[in-house]
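Quick one:
INPUT:
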């Protein structure tokens, strides 16, 4: 049998891969018994979406994850904001990509929701990651990779810099973006948002997605127990969005849903009792 030699770089890579493997083992063991409550844009029913106020409220209400959206700025930073324009959720106007991050931080991202949130800022994803990494789960959505070339690499670089974490997930409706992220940073878990036709997902499509993503995320009205079982048979977990009714939550839980994305994280409990 030939001898095998390892340099320090190879040893570091193997050690990193082992850490990621152990993290996933623990994380998926938890998922077998624990429903994940995911605060949609933070606790967005109680505070302005995609702000630190909404994220802190989500933690206060016991959410296990915070879902948030990112857009690339003029200077290549990642701003936490849902729309490609700032008009709806700030006192500014124009496309996010036409602002630098510093310019975005001068806008008021809270007053539109309530005067009591005046002065809330658009967060920088880097600041969000530093604040919450390994403290609460983060579900980061890429809004549009086609109009924001390089966004997958920018997100992956930020996450990778902080080290492997099983509870920082990147999702998108653009399966190609998640595949690109997986190819660049295979240790970062990905999720594909799907709009299935007639409540069905072709077996071949699920099998294809499972080769580069660990999760699928669907609108709750499109879900069925059969679809969830099909995803589970491909070793994938299923998230439902956006669930704001307890009755709907109970039905999804009876189908063994893995995570509920909601504006009201206090409506549901971690142990799966709505």
């Amino acid at each position: 049998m030939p001898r095998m030699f390892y340099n320090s770089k190879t040893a570091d890579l193997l050690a990193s891969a082992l850490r990621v493997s152990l993290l996933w083992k623990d994380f998926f063991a938890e998922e077998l018994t624990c429903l994940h409550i995911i605060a949609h844009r933070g606790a967005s029913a109680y505070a302005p979406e995609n702000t630190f106020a909404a994220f802190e409220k989500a933690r206060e209400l016991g959410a296990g994850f915070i879902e948030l959206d990112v857009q690339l700025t003029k200077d290549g930073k990642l701003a936490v904001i849902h729309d490609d324009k700032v008009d709806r959720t700030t006192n500014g106007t124009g496309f996010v990509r036409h602002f630098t991050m510093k310019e975005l931080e001068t806008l008021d991202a809270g007053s539109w929701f309530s005067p009591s949130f005046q002065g809330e800022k658009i967060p920088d994803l880097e600041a969000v990651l530093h604040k919450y990494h390994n403290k609460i789960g983060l579900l980061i959505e890429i809004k549009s990779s086609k109009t924001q070339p390089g966004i997958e690499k920018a997100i992956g670089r930020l996450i990778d810099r902080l080290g492997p974490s099983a509870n920082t997930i990147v999702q998108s409706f653009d399966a190609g973006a998640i595949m690109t992220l997986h190819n660049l940073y295979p240790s970062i878990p990905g999720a594909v948002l799907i709009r299935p036709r007639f409540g069905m997902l072709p077996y071949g499509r699920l099998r294809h997605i499972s080769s580069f993503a660990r999760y699928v995320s669907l609108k709750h009205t499109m879900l069925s127990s059969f679809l969830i079982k099909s995803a589970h048979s491909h070793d994938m977990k299923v998230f439902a969005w956006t669930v704001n009714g307890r009755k709907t939550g109970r039905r999804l839980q009876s189908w063994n849903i893995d995570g509920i994305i909601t504006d009201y994280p206090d409506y549901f409990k971690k142990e799966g009792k709505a």
